[in-house]
Amino acid sequence: MNGLFKERLDTVFIRRGISTHRRVRRLLQKHNVCVNGSRVLESGFRLNLTLDKISIDGIKKNLAPDIYLMMNKQADSICSTKDDGLYKTVYSFVPKKYFEYAKENSLQKIHTVGRLDTDTEGLLIFTTNGDFSHSLANPLFHVKKTYYVELEKTESEAQRKILEEKFSEGFFIPEEKNEKEFISRPSILEWNSESSCRLTITEGKFHQVKRMFSAQGNKVVFLKRISIGSLALDEKLAPGNSRELSNEELSLLFK
Ligand code: URA
User: Fold this and answer.
1) pLDDT (tens digit, 9 = 90+) per residue, 221-232?
2) Which residue from 70, 82, 166, 255 has the highest number of Cβ atoms inside 10 Å of its Cβ?
3) Cα–Cα distance between 202 and 204 in angstroms, integer?
4) Residue 53 lies in domain
5) Nearest residue to 144 (alpha-carbon basis) of 226, 246, 239
6) pTM to 2 decimals?
7) Looking at ligand 1, which residue's alpha carbon is closest to its atom 3?
8) Does 2 fall in a domain?
9) Quick one: 133 and 246 in the same domain?
10) Confidence bin at 255 (pLDDT 50/70/90)
């Protein structure tokens, strides 16, 4: 799994419960932490969990690589671990072997990076790496997410230009179902036709894309996430299917 991919030693040690944030440096100074037989003193040393042999004071540590999957979420599935009786959860589409692998290797639970609405399709990432999901989903990091959108009403050429400008500046979004009103951050709107477009946003508020268009007097009738950061949805994946991310894809997300 993910043979070439490397991560900082301190984040791996903390996540796997080998050390706490405050104690990593001391652990490296006081104990003989070896990677492939050579002592490591730098907490920023980059580990490859697939290939590197790690030991602490001569005792081998088996640190299984984390799981990173992309799914093409199908509509009518929910981003929740609990079945609501109406729709299948997205976890029911993840092959069982990944849950077994996570359990056998004491990894964190498989979870999604952010969420998509029940009727939204497209790119959904699953992982056991909580640091990774946190940094991608955290609004402070402003990770770009691009959606393909189909709208109920057509927009004239003049109105499409106006909307492009509005979206690029940001505008007021009223509250919805106990979710606060907000001013949208600048986003990029690119029209494909009079009623379909791509929208790139750097935040992920509740029903964000739908609320943005609704605030402009239109309605989203189809929504599909097509990329997160530089990672594009593999269009060869049929709805409901998933596959492991390649090293190249992971490198795009860890940049
Ligand atoms: N914006 C929405 O309105 N819904 C989603 O599922 C994702 C973004």
Assistant:
1) 999 999 999 999
2) 70
3) 7
4) 7-61
5) 226
6) 0.91
7) 207
8) no
9) yes
10) low
Q: Which residue has the tokens 């007021």?
A: 172
Number of domains in the chain: 3
Residue 1 lies in a domain: no
CA distances for 157 relative to 4, 164, 199, 243, angstroms: 48, 11, 17, 40
> What is the per-residue pLDDT across 46-76, written as a single tens digit (0 to 9) for each?
998 888 999 999 999 989 999 999 999 999 9
Q: How far does the centroid of ligand 1 lie from the alpha carbon of residue 77, in Å?
A: 14
135 and 86, same structural domain?
yes
**Res. 3: pLDDT tops 70:** no
In the prediction, which pLDDT does 2 show? 45
Do 133 and 238 belong together in one domain?
yes
Among 52, 66, 117, 234, the one annotated catalytic: 117
The CATH code of the domain that includes 170 is 3.30.70.1560
- The CA 150 to ligand 1 mean position distance, Å, reads 13
Active site residue 117: yes
pLDDT for the residue 140: 86
CATH of the domain at 47: 3.10.290.10
